[in-house]
Write a structure and sequence with these properties.
By secondary structure, the protein is mostly helical. It contains four helices and no strands. It is about 60% helix and about 0% strand.
Length: about 160
Amino acid sequence: MHPVLQRIAINGILTALFLGVIGVMISNIAVTFVPQSADISSGSDGGVNPDQELISQIKTRTPIMLAIWGFGFVAVGEVVLHLWRGRKPAKPAEPTPEERTKTEMMLQELLAKAEADEKAKPATGNQPAGGHRAAGGESREMLELPKPEAAPTPPAEPKAP
């Protein structure tokens, strides 16, 4: 199943169920405000009370319409999101075991060559061969920086006469 259709199905059905329950509650509240008229069905023609027909229509149509409109809204929203975001690019194929071992061998060779070059270089400057961290970190003597001077004193406040 296409991912967009799957999202529409899952989110649309959940939304329709939720709005259907909300529709039942709303219709029950709306029915309480329908005025009860005199019973017309007591006549000889066997007619139906118009208020009862209205109540049954409210109780069936409200939840169904809320569910349909909710599902439709989710379906349109998911399609618009899919078109707006675009399709995700396909994942690149996993390398085969032969390619993986070949790549690992090349990396090991490059690493060995870099380590050999590092050992062949003579130590230069004030830093030991292990780097500045091997000497305990940077220090002012090692970097030959001037020592900071004393902080300047703030000017004295004028005396009041």
